[in-house]
């Protein structure tokens, strides 16, 4: 195994082609430097320098070996820089889980962009999944942060939850539906139509919020077709298969044949939650949470003005 210190000595002498000047740069006396170079030559099995009383030059073997020694030391330096960044939490990997209905939110896209700008050497992995599926993935470490619409049960004390408020629901309607002609709609009118949702048993927090809304208003919920993504739900609406209640951010999906209308009923909203492990959060997790908090506070300040 080559000694990295001796490789550095070799490069310095190769740059100076003078043992005295190289020794000054390395803060060594010349005799110890000469001995270290001799030891390196013995390890390699060939001479690195031709020495005379008046000049020092690289041997042909030394010239050929030089770029390899430089590459090794440059790689070591890069490794040290990366190790320092990992220790400081400015590099590494971060797995972010998110519910389909959150992917279109402005907060989500802004958080990803802001975090990537601040931590360009962090590899972000996005994992789409229902709210319920995120719980187990956070507990076992498959994801570091979850953006969810469903509060975990109390017995899952390993999960820490913070709320980012509620997002209003809007009705997604086929544009040729009589309801689309209204400026706004209420749940009583919507309950007469089949409701397109995520599949039963999928573990959707949006489903849970909508079903609670129907129950609170003592209105029947007519099940319609289902889709596993918010985009497929909107496609079913466009096909005239029913209506959907979706977060207001979904309106960015300006699909032909679909009209969005505000819902007037109180409590027509879905929560937005950030889930992490309760203990042992990494520097990167804390950094991403800080980004989300900054953006959320700025968003709230804008709404107040």
UniProtKB/TrEMBL annotation:
The keyword Transcription regulation applies. The keyword Magnesium does not apply. Keywords: DNA-binding, Transcription, Transcription regulation. This is LysR family transcriptional regulator. Residues 2-59 form the HTH lysR-type domain. Belongs to the LysR transcriptional regulatory family. CDD domains: PBP2_LTTR_aromatics_like. Gene3D superfamilies: Periplasmic binding protein-like II, Winged helix-like DNA-binding domain superfamily/Winged helix DNA-binding domain. SUPFAM superfamilies: Periplasmic binding protein-like II, Winged helix' DNA-binding domain. It comes from Pseudomonas sessilinigenes.
């Amino acid at each position: 195994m080559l000694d990295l210190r001796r490789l550095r000595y070799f490069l310095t002498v190769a740059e100076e082609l003078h043992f005295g000047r190289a020794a000054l740069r390395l803060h060594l006396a010349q005799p110890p430097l000469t001995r270290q170079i001799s030891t390196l030559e013995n390890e390699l099995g060939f001479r690195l320098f031709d020495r005379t009383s008046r000049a020092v030059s690289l041997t042909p073997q030394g010239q050929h070996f030089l770029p390899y020694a430089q590459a090794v030391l440059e790689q070591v330096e890069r490794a040290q820089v990366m190790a320092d960044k990992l220790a400081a939490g400015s590099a590494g990997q971060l797995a972010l889980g998110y519910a389909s209905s959150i992917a279109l939110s402005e907060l989500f896209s802004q958080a990803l962009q802001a975090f990537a700008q601040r931590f360009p050497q962090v590899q972000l992995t996005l994992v789409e999944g229902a709210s319920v599926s995120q719980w187990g993935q956070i507990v076992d470490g498959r994801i570091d942060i979850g953006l969810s619409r469903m509060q975990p049960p109390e017995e899952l004390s390993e999960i820490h939850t913070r709320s980012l408020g509620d997002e209003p629901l809007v009705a997604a309607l086929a544009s040729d539906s009589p309801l689309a002609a209204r400026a706004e709609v209420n749940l009583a009118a919507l309950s007469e139509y089949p409701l397109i949702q995520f599949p039963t048993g999928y573990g959707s927090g949006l489903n849970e919020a909508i079903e609670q809304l129907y129950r609170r208003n003592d209105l029947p919920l007519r099940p319609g077709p289902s889709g596993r993504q918010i985009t497929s739900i909107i496609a079913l609406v466009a096909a005239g298969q029913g209506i959907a209640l979706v977060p207001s951010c979904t309106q960015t999906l300006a699909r032909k044949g679909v009209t969005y209308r505000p819902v007037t009923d109180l409590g027509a909203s879905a929560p937005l939650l950030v889930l992490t492990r309760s203990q042992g959060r990494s520097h990167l997790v804390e950094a991403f949470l800080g980004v989300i908090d900054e953006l959320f506070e700025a968003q709230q300040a804008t709404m107040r003005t």
